[in-house]
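Thread: quick sanity check before group meeting

JM: Hey all, I'm pulling together slides for Thursday and realized we never actually wrote out the predicted structure for the chain we discussed last week. Dropping the sequence here so it's in one place. If anyone has concerns about the input, flag it before I start.
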Amino acid sequence: MTAEVDALIAVGLRLRVPDVAIIELVYVLEGFYLLTREEIAQAVDGLIGQSVFDLNRSLWTTVMRVFVEHPKLSCADIYLTFDARQYGADPLASFDKKLVSQLGAVRPAELSASR
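JM (edit): ok, ran it. Output follows.
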């Protein structure tokens, strides 16, 4: 598979990498290949560093930093938090207690009570 991807990159096309593909990559590297969070962050940083890929570099740089710093939070939850902030939908409403306590998300009831 690596050879096929390398050949595709060599053609010089601009390739879009959707956020969900990176979330899936992290899930597979963590769950199937049993890589550490640091190793996963290095792999994603390598992807981010390839100019051929069109992706949200600043968002994924932040997500990977927090992913390493907060081992109890999933990549998907971290992504949701920072994606919400990027689009002005902060704070994120969540029932996830770890997300509320570690990244400033709020329970839905708290958000609706403040309106």
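AS: nice. The helical segments are 2-11, 19-31, 37-48, 57-69, 75-86, 97-103, 108-113. The mean pLDDT is 93.
JM: adding both to the slides.
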